[in-house]
Write a structure and sequence with these properties.
8 strands; 48% strand; alpha+beta; 4-stranded mixed beta sheet; 176 residues; Immunoglobulin-like; 4-stranded antiparallel beta sheet; disordered N terminus
């Protein structure tokens, strides 16, 4: 007659074999995620005070996207991409108050660079008392329905500051 502990060991061993057969201990499926990048011309923003002045003394704030991280997960034919955009901001001489507001965009493109979806989000940052520079992050989540045979490689996610025409031309003229 077996002891109770030997019986438990036998049941445990059988359970492990059953679970191993079900794939519990197998490697999870990995598929490629979309590339996430910053649009070069939208990597920086310079905001001037209202009016015609466009000198250094007219700057209310400047910002730069300092990095982007992402991860993705698949659930059947849905691909969910989480992105975190890091930015640094600096108050300019014309700044009034300690808060600045700006817009950030996130766009999904296909392999031909056609924009499939684009969203613009408002972000507000407060500068700590006594500091001219600060940093922050914004987190976004995109859900992409995948057609048969598609993977994350078939898409790209592009992020940046949502710029006015004047801000875009300024960035192009500076060629950062």
């Amino acid at each position: 007659m077996r002891s109770l502990s030997a019986w438990r060991q036998a049941v445990l061993a059988a359970s492990v074999l059953v679970l191993a057969g079900c794939g519990v201990f197998s490697e999870p499926e990995t598929r490629p995620c979309p590339r996430v990048s910053v649009l070069n011309e939208a990597e920086r923003i310079t905001q001037y005070k209202p009016g015609p002045g466009r000198d250094l003394i007219d700057v209310t704030f400047e910002g730069k996207v300092s990095g982007v991280r992402s991860d993705c997960k698949f659930d059947g034919d849905l691909l969910t991409v989480g992105s975190e955009i890091a930015f640094t901001l600096e108050r300019g001489p014309a700044a009034e108050g300690r808060e600045v507001e700006f817009a950030v965009f996130i766009a999904v493109t296909d392999s031909a660079q056609a924009i499939l979806a684009k969203e613009v989000f408002q972000s507000k940052v407060a500068f700590p008392e006594g500091l001219r520079r600060t940093s922050g992050t914004e987190e976004f989540e995109q859900v992409i329905p995948l057609a048969e045979g598609e993977t994350g490689d078939d898409y790209e996610i592009i992020v940046g500051f949502q710029l006015s025409g004047e801000q875009l031309e300024l960035n192009r003229s500076r060629r950062f």
